[in-house]
Predict the structure of NfeD-like C-terminal domain-containing protein.
Amino acid sequence: ASLSRVGWARVHGERWRVRSTSPLAAGRAVRVTGRRGLMLTVVPASNPSQEGEHT
């Protein structure tokens, strides 16, 4: 799979241009951490099975 730091993501049904500090594979779930104009900053989403758990 191709990895990229800039691309497109669907957020709440809307298509947004996104940028990540680390390469992401297409189709990977992300979490929005910021916005500058019409560009969202994202990071890879946590594993859904780990959500709500604290270490």
Remarks:
- Residues 49-55 have pLDDT under 50 and may be disordered.
- The chain has one domain: 3-46.
- Residues 3-46 form a domain with the OB fold (Dihydrolipoamide Acetyltransferase, E2P) fold (CATH 2.40.50.140).
- Residues 24 and 55 are 25 Å apart (CA to CA).
